[in-house]
């Protein structure tokens, strides 16, 4: 089953971007009562950048293989390189990915898709990731990307969300030549499935919008819950601060009272010392007088 599923996915992801959804849904109908049906139905439409990379892999397979081979060689070599060599290596890698990205944009234009600079940046980031990370390279070579890739070479990439199905890693897309231009149609033939395709596209858009809404709602609920927790903690901390302030005020008042009492005690001590000295002198004088009378 995995081989058959990969074969179907390989065909679908080789199609023009605007034909993917209708072709996938048609396959789902063909697979009625087949255990592959839900798996094919779950195949996601690729982003524009992912589609451009998939197109490049199939139309310029040899060049993509060469890019991946250069990436593997550079990964092995960079371990023993100095800082200057690594900077030169990074520059060369950028030049290569920029050149291949330019070619990918040309291929997309031949298919009737103008690639914006933002999408081109994602394509170049994906090619860079394929050179930096071996698993990213395998994902690119599968031709089954649904999302662009990006990596610094340190953080782990979530490839499960970037490829159409887990079996994609290790699969290699089939090379395909561009379809030769045919003779122009002289008659416009109405599409009998136009309404159904429109409903399918609208349903897909609705499903994606509902999924995005659910994610946004979950994010809001989490944020709101965190705000409530922090507000409660803030009130608790403020109450503790107020209690400490009250205790500090009480201690300061007690300290003032103790200082006043200490001053009075010091005065009493001084007076008692004077009285003691005078009493001692009087006793000594009386003792001497008594001795003389002896």
Main sheet? none
Q: End-to-end span in angstroms?
A: 135 Å
Strand content: under 5%
Structural class: mainly alpha
- Contiguous runs where pLDDT drops below 50 for at least 5 residues: 182-189
Radius of gyration, taken over Cα atoms and rounded to an integer in Å: 41 Å
Count of DSSP helices? 9
Oligomer: single chain
Give the SSE string.
Answer: HHHHHHHHH
Gross geometry: elongated
Summarize the amount of helix as a percent range. over 70%
Overall mean pLDDT: 84
Number of strands: 0
Written description of the protein model:
The chain has helices at residues 2-12, 20-30, 37-41, 48-59, 61-77, 83-110, 117-132, 134-142, 194-293. By secondary structure, it is an all-alpha fold. It has a domain at 2-177. The chain is elongated, with a radius of gyration of 41 Å.
Task: Identify the notable features of this structure and list them briefly.
mainly alpha, single chain, 9 helices, 294 residues, 0% strand, elongated
SSE diagram, text form:
Layout lengths: L1 H11 L7 H11 L6 H5 L6 H12 L1 H17 L5 H28 L6 H16 L1 H9 L51 H100 L1
Helix pairs in contact: 4-5, 4-6, 4-7, 5-6, 5-7, 6-7, 7-8
Give a short summary of the structure.
This protein is mainly alpha-helical and 294 residues long. The chain has a domain at 2-177. The chain is built from nine helices and no strands.
């Amino acid at each position: 089953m995995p081989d058959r599923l990969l074969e179907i996915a390989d065909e679908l992801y080789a199609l023009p971007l605007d034909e993917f959804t209708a072709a996938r849904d048609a396959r789902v109908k063909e697979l009625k009562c087949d255990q592959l049906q839900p798996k094919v139905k779950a195949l996601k439409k690729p982003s524009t950048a992912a589609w451009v990379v998939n197109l490049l892999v199939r139309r310029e397979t040899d060049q993509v293989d060469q890019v991946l081979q250069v990436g593997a060689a550079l990964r092995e070599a960079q371990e023993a390189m100095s800082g200057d060599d690594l900077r030169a290596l990074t520059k060369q890698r950028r030049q290569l990915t920029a050149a291949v990205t330019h070619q990918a944009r040309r291929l997309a234009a031949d298919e009737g898709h103008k690639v914006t600079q933002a999408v081109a940046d994602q394509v170049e980031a994906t090619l860079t990731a394929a050179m930096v990370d071996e698993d990213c390279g395998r994902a690119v070579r599968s031709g089954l990307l649904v999302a662009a890739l990006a990596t610094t070479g340190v953080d782990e990439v979530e490839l499960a969300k970037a490829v159409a199905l887990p079996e994609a890693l290790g699969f290699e897309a089939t090379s395909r030549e561009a379809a030769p231009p045919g003779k122009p149609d002289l008659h416009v033939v109405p599409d009998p499935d136009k309404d159904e395709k429109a409903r399918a596209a609208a349903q897909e858009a609705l499903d994606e919008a509902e999924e995005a809404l659910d994610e946004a709602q979950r994010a809001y609920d989490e944020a709101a819950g965190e705000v409530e927790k922090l507000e409660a903690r803030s009130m608790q901390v403020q109450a503790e601060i107020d209690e400490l302030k009250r205790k500090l005020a009480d201690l300061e008042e007690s300290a003032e009272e103790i200082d006043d009492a200490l001053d009075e005690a010091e005065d009493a001590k001084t007076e008692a010392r004077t009285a003691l000295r005078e009493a001692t002198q009087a006793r000594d004088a009386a003792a001497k007088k008594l001795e003389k009378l002896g």
